[in-house]
Structures are given as C-alpha cells and as structure tokens.
Amino acid sequence: MVSILSLPRKHSQSTSSDFDVRSQALFGGAFFTPVIVGKITHTIGWQWSFYLIAIFAGALLPLVVFFVPETAFVRPGDQTSTNSSSHHLNEDLELSPAKQSNGNSNSNPSSFEEKENHPNHSIGSHPPTKVTYLQTLLPFNGRKSDINFFKLLLRPFPLFLHPAVLWACLIQGTLIGWTVMIGVVLAAIFLGPPLWFNEVETGYMYTGPFVGAILGFILSGLLADWSTRYMIRRNRGVYEPEFRIVLVAAQLVFGCAGLYGFGITAEHVGRYGWFLPDFFFACEVGGMVLGAVASALYIVDAHREIAVEAFTCLLMFKNIFSFGLTWGAYDWIVSAGISKTFYIIASIQVGICLLGIPMCKSSPSHPA
C-alpha cells in the first residue's frame, strides 16, 4: 500500500485498479490457500501445511534480498497533502466554455491544469545518487525521514480518534473480522452432522469465497470509478473525495446479505445443503472487498498527507479485532446459536455501513 502511495500521478485522484491489484494478491491468496490446505491435511497431515509455508518462505527470502532492492528516497519539496475538493478532473469530464463561463463563473480554475502548465521543478530536481548493486544489498541504507523516530512510531495511535480513519477501520476491519469468524466456525458446522464433511470437502468450501473475492475485485473496478465520474457530472464537474463512499452501498447489499444468508442457511445445513452457505459466504467476501477498496480510496483521496499512518491504523484494527474473534467465536456460536449470532453481527454491519451517510454530510464541502 505504501508503494501505491509513492507512485507518481498525473492527477491526485486515485484509481480503483491500484487497490484492486493489491487486494487481489492479499484476499485472493487468503481464500485460495484453504482449498489446497484441506487436501494437504487429509493426505499427508496438518503439520505439512506449516512445513510447506516454511519451505516456500525460505525459498523466497534470497529472491527478495537479491532482486527486490530498496527504492525509497526523499523527494525534495514533495507535498503529499492534496485537497481534492476544489479540483476539476479534466481527464474525466471536460466542461464546455459555456458552462465554465455561466455555471461555474465563480469557481477557481483547476489546479490540475496549473500543475500541467507549471510543474513543481523542486520535485525531482535533485535525483538521488545512483547506487551500485552491492550497495542495494546492505541491510540498512539510511533513514528516509528527518522526523523523530519515536514520533513516527507513535503517530498512528492518535489517528484512531480521527473520524475518517475510525470510519475506514470500521468499514474495512469489521467485515474482515466477520470473515475470519466464519472461517473459525466453518469446520464446526460442516465436519459434524448432518453432512459429515472431511478435511478435503471443508477446504473446498473456500472455493466460493475465492470466487466471491475475484468477483468483488471486478465489481469494485467497474463501480468505483464509474460511480465517481457519475457523481462528478452531478456536481458540475467538481470532484469530492466523499464520492468514494458511494461504493459502500454495494458493500451493504452484498456483505450484509451474505452475513444474514449464511446465518440462516448454516443453521439448517441438512435442509439447505452446502451450496447456499457457500454462496452467501462468497457474497460476504465480495462485500468485504468492496468495503476495503472504498475505504482505501477515500483515505488516499481525502487525507493523503496521513495516508501511511491511516493504513497502519487499519492494519492494527483488523488484526486485533480478528484475533479477538478467534478466541470467542466458537463459544459465541455454541451459546447463542448460528442464526442468532449472525443476525446480530449482520445488523451491526448494517449500522456500520450506514455511517457513510454522516461521513458525507459532515465533509468540509457539505457541512452538516
């Protein structure tokens, strides 16, 4: 994600394809691996799942050391802070001269065009000295920031109180946590009666989430930029970062429907069989991907100056939240039942998705 933020851009608006690639590598691998692990566990034992991880990690380590050099450097005069609210996207929507003279006579000219005509020559005017291949192998090649180390270390924590960061943590982190929760209870539901799945068949249940993740990537790519261009037209050619929040509506439909549906069908697998729970699991994962892309695009477009720290907060929240669910998910299911438990968490997720409404209303360009 940090590498995505460092890419040079013609415009400050991010595109969904940047995050689709990153998300596909992360989520796609996460849901394809259990399909293989089930077969490995059934054939040669569960220990080999960890042995193979160690073998592949050991094989990749020298490749990373020798062929993935450090490319970060300090860009003099680089200003990562952008206020996209006042920008006009000339690439996506060109206003006619009549509209510019009549409808938008009081608006400021696009800063994008100014950047094209008057580039900031301080950026990249002093390129870093080229290093040799042997120098790229050094374990440490200097700091990339003059800010105090402890300030950098502690800077993400206050951002949990930032409304945009807290909203992004909830939108992305909770649905990832519910996905982990489904993974925890999946074996308990299908290994026992009435279906009596073995390890291989339980692993194959992750085929649905894998397909759901792929479809979520495709859908987010189709909807994210299209919905943003549509909102730009409705807003007289002016782009607002809050347009990215519109994508949460798709998460509300697919993610919450997946949670409700999984709770209903998994409670009665003898009646519904294995397909419907797997289908709703796929819907839930697709909603998770949509929410992850929406929150990431909004953070980058609205708060690029704190994006690195914000993504650190997102990582911490989802990991801690998911870890907590792994401890209590099974006991929660046993005490409350499958359907009731998923009714509760699906209703919580509906409320979290609806937080996108006050986020739009409280934006600087749309005061509450």
Verbal overview:
The chain is mainly α. It has 16 helices and no strands. It has helices at 2-6, 16-44, 47-67, 97-101, 111-117, 133-136, 149-154, 163-190, 199-204, 207-234, 248-267, 269-272, 275-302, 307-336, 338-354, 356-361. Helix 2 runs antiparallel to helix 13 (275-302), helix 8 packs parallel to helix 11 (248-267) and helix 8 runs parallel beside helix 14 (307-336). The longest helix is centred in the last third of the chain and has 30 residues, at 307-336. It is globular and about 70 Å long. The two termini are 32 Å apart.
Please specify the SSE layout and strand pairing:
Blueprint: H1 2-6, H2 16-44, H3 47-67, H4 97-101, H5 111-117, H6 133-136, H7 149-154, H8 163-190, H9 199-204, H10 207-234, H11 248-267, H12 269-272, H13 275-302, H14 307-336, H15 338-354, H16 356-361
Note the main attributes of this structure.
globular, 0% strand, mainly alpha, disordered C terminus, 368 residues
Low-confidence stretches: 6-12, 78-124, 364-368
- Rg over CA atoms, rounded to whole Å, is 23 Å
Q: How many helical elements?
A: 16
- Secondary-structure element string: HHHHHHHHHHHHHHHH
Provide the β-strand percentage band.
Answer: under 5%
Q: Please tally the β strands and state the result.
A: 0
Distance between the termini: 32 Å
